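User: Predict the complex.
Assistant: Input components as received:
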Amino acid sequence: MTLLEIFPSLRSGMPSPRLATSVWPCETHYDDLGRITVAGVALADIADQYGTPTYVLDETEVRRRCQAYRKHFPDAEIIYAAKALMTKSMARWVTEEGLSVDVCSAGELAIALAAGVDPERIVLHGSGKPFAELEAAVAAGVGRIVLDSLTEVTLLSALATRPQKVLLRLSPDIDVHGHPAVKTGVLDQKFGFPIGSAQAAEAVERILRQPTLRLVGFHCHLGSQISNPDYYGEGVRRMVAEMARVHREHGHLMTELDLGGGHAVAYRCGDPEMNLPELADIVEDALDAACARHHFPRPHIAMEPGRAIAARAGVTLYRVMTIKHIEGGRTFVIVDGGMNDNPRVALYGARYDAVVANRHPTGAHMTATVAGRYCEAGDILAHDVSLPADLRPGEVLAIPCTGAYHHSLASSYNGVGRPPIVAVHEGRCQQILRRETPADLLSRDLG
Ligand code: LLP
């Protein structure tokens, strides 16, 4: 037992303890009652007010991450990848911090426009953009469209009525050794054109022939959860060589190089994450060397972090429904959410921490598997986590680092609607997206 546990009154005279800032928002503490607070709001109060499961999102943490990118990459364009988490508030916060926005569907585009994002600062992505989405993007006047196939070159040149800036997506043949589902830099995958291939050359020629299309640069996206910055240095070298080749062969000078996203975050304490100052140095050095080698003027660098902006700002709250000690097996803590609000465990084998949020954990601990409420054995949220041995139904569990690819990947499996998002900021909370109800589900069902 610690002194604090014997004399809880000592706590008020001490600075409140913090939870690890590598996985929790910076302003995460225990309050005098031993409850976890984020941005000054007790998570247990949010659970009481809005129900569970609920995504909590710390506005200051989102802004802080944007500011870190702006600080370490002062000359680069930072484009928030909206697929990580897109709401009007999110779009507003990131653009107020000077970021542009990458959207990959008409839906994300509509949210960005509704939030008042300047269309010129929007980039459209997608490996199979439907005609109507290209049409919507052109009508909205989006700044750049990243072309992914020859079909899109044809469609867009037919659609564009005024000069449309485009980038061409190339796969640079870099294997970042990630999960196969999120490996995008290798040649044999569905995105873009293999670097140096005949198809890539044909795409460049076709775009250059179109009077309405302005090829301003190349794009690549190496993959997800990349913590080794050297891969980006290699990306810069290969892409600049290709830009220089187009310059030599066509006399066409491209000025933008978009290196995509994929910067790793720590999901659990001790996980590796991308070091931004190191990444900045490596990209800078690679750019200097490649441009000197190919006598090519320095392109303007863009990066598209999604996870690294949103992940750590998010905490998901669940209520414990029941606890099962399986004889000769594991202890399952079953909560009222699961794979619907976090499919990342089932999809990618992701690992999370889970912490009791309504009281400071004291006394004995148990090792447990946090499982969801859905009708699948694979519906697990966290493996082998340490929780209080006296945990009871009704208590609140918090899983940190759930701001990116949680709400955006959520489903309404088993007829359970998606959770709300409650934003916290300077001691106040506000629901920015409401819970999906059975009435919402029924409203789509036309009978
Ligand atoms: N740019 C492009 C073109 C992308 O395809 C992506 C992610 C990003 C940027 C942002 O990547 P980030 O910085 O967020 O890693 N559902 C998976 C992640 C899929 C990422 C797809 N593309 C997950 O939950 O891990």
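The longest strand covers residues 314-325.
Let me know if you want any component modeled separately.
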